[in-house]
Design goal:
A: 295 residues; 12 helices; 0% strand; B: alpha/beta; eight-stranded mixed sheet
Amino acid sequence: MAVSVALGEAPVVAVTPMSYWRTVGWRLSRDRATLLAGGVLLLIALSAVLAPWIAPYDPSAGSIRLRLAEVGAPGHVLGTDEQGRDMLSRLLWGGRMTLVAGLTPVLVALVLGAGLGVAAGYVGGITNTLIMRTMDIFYAFPAVLLAIAISGALGPGLANTLISLSIVFVPRVVRVAESATVQVKGLEYIAAARASGAGVRAIVRHHLLANVLGPILVFASTQVSLSIILAAGLSFLGLGVTPPAAEWGLMLNTLRQSIYVNAIVPALPGLAIFVTSMAFNLLSDGLRDAMEIRG
Amino acid sequence: MSRPLLEARGLRKHFPLRGGVLQRTRAWVRAVDDVSFEVAPGETLGIVGESGCGKSTLARVILRLIEPEAGVLRFDGEDVRAASPSRMKRLRRDMQLVFQDPYASLNPRLTIEDAIAFSLLVHGTPRREARERACAMLGRVGLDPGLHGRRYAHELSGGQRQRVNIARALVLDPRLLVLDEPVSALDKSVQAQVLNLLQDLKSERALTYVFISHDLNVIEYVSDRVLVMYLGEVVETGTAEALAQSPKHPYTQALFASAPSMDPDRRMDRLPIAGDPPNAIDPPSGCRFRTRCAFAMPRCAEVPPRLVPVGATHEVACYLYAAEPAPVA
């Protein structure tokens, strides 16, 4: 440890300074909580991707005789659900759905929100008013309510879940992007770039985006865990993924009546949701710390 | 006298203060009000005044970073305000700005080499040449391109950053440099180094300076002529010596009196200035300085005084020196 600390001090005085992204990577590599969270996420992502090959059973094939087997039952490491389907297989397959439903809306919101927010912040005036007041309309509803309302109107299904969650997250990203843009736009280096004769495109590309995308990215990463929970929540309410497909929120819903028969098995999808969203939270915290510019 | 390099006539910039649900304009901040001056090639014009008197706004108006509402701005005889975007881009190479805050004026995500080269790239210089010229410029302002070129702004000290700012402004080979409080954020010892660097660069590159500062010592040291501003207006203008030896306007006198002096006999025997400057949102009627002026007369509240000559190149806007009685409106 002492050696790495000494190395850590070195770039400040040494002749060869590190580039920004190398500094970020170096900081991340020393942050244990973030590394652990990243490792957990990598494991979850891998098991979700590889589910068709590593799942021991067909996730939708049940057996009436083997309903609600205990964790550790012979042949079923994590037991079986209320229809006798293998829990491990269903959790692996369910992770695919949950990750897709959690990540896609945030990615969509990141692209749309950053574009709208930066445009609103940089152009200002009536464009800003138009975009930001429209976003305020969405802000008037609590996130869960808005997601339920839109999903309810569109009907159940994965695609509709993705649409409704994207609508929930776009305004949030727009707000962060707009305020970051307004703040950076007022700094003197933007004025200096204008004074040097640079056009809007060059200024936005080289001076604005580089300083605005970091905070937006960090904010978006904090929203992934919420998105996962909302997606699971929609499935739980019957508005998301439709049975018999495996999805953690939906599994929680169908297993909930069995909680008095077997307490551990119904808790497993909840545990999976908790661990995944927690890992995303820790990762975004670490990302925020690592991307901070220290003077 | 030859044609002035920069000529400003009646420049005016008022900022609207909006409020309420409908964002209606409630009041105007008169940041720059009817300011006129000329700068001859090779000259240094000092602009001095308290914080909030519109100095920085004036700097940005000169470079057309802020559009003035009224007035004429000529650079080498060319009307700057009427310049087309492409013409303006060309003009920007000739007039550059050095900013006040050495921290906010450098992009934290660019190496200082890239920050300087950016201006050249904007004007179509090939990447390699831009980098070479940026490094050469870094060397000229006293930084080692090998040691500092690949660093980020936050790894440099305030004085080093201000050198980078100067290099960025000069790399385009401008003829006019507007310096907006270039040394105010620096320590005294570093101030002297940067000021000397600026003086050297000026004679070396035949530059013309508009030097803005609130520090009279600095202004006296660098300027040929001085413009004294108060709440967006010019109250006195003259050569640096004339102003230092016989300041006419009560405000200029107070400024000189409040500057610390090394001479014990000169200390505080002149008028000290009292209170804060009034708000530029609602400036006093007539002469804007009258609320703090020891010589205020009834007529000062009526009509603002105009600049009247009190010497060959010395003008003052004060009724104490008015040759003829003020016209009653």
